[in-house]
Design brief:
The chain has 300 residues and is mainly alpha-helical. It has helices at residues 3-20, 34-66, 115-123, 130-135, 149-158, 175-179, 186-202, 205-219, 224-230, 245-251, 255-263, 283-292, and strands at 72-78, 84-90, 140-142, 171-173. A hairpin with a 5-residue loop joins strand 1 (72-78) and strand 2.
Amino acid sequence: MSPANLDEITANLFAESTQAVDSAEERISPAPYFRWQAAICRLVAAVLLIPGVPLVACIILLVRLTSRGPAIYRQIRVGKNGRTFHMYKIRSMRIDAEAMTGPAWTLENDPRITRLGRVLRKLHLDELPQLWNVVMGEMNLFGPRPERPEFTHVLAKEIPGFLDRLAVLPGITGLAQINLPPDSDMNSVRRKLVLDLEYIDTANLLLDVRMFACTLLRMIGLPGALAMRVMRLERTPEIEEDSTSGQQQHECRTPNTIVSTAEGQPGSNGSAESNGHTKPTSTSRDCQKVSSAAHVDSTP
């Protein structure tokens, strides 16, 4: 499925979702803070780029010296109101990361991550180029993380209300990313959605300042759990989970397996890097990989 087709599908799904709740009481209404949050974030991002550009330049040099391929890559992501944009990152995986698998999630000890890439991911330095996305008005510093279109159209059909998170600009980090590990199954996506919607409903300047401080504390080596306690950001989202075997088997499905089933073959959007691991070929194998990913550290 081509990026253009996915872009159209995502836009149509968002439009249908908006129409479906147009007159309903549960339609999401972003906090008033979002009226001026973008202006603040763009200003802060521009200031951060002053020391950030030399740092990115040094990292680019290290990436080029330690692995072949470009140091900066761009990837299509879904932004506010379903509009797609190119998000920039420092490459932390091999250049051929998606050659055989297509779009997929990252799991624990992914062999495609380079040695330098593991350090960059641990310190979240691979996200620094996204400051440019913020300056350009495509992202905010804080908000729901932007998903790939290959997964967005799948998750929108599998999880009610998933597209509500597109009511605001996506963020470099957010309440969900600070509290929860990377997505590993549908229930993990549902948990993050709870926190994304909480943020959209209650966002304010003080909350953003606390998340910014928490991210800085984690970057300098403070354990994530301690940083969250200090900044009073701990959240435990609750969702309804069906314990029946049939539902459990259903929940083990991830966008990787659903996309693979729908297309009949691995697909790729041409990016130099993925979010994931080898695409599973059956539900049982996918469940095993989901289980192995349960202890992956959070990556805002």
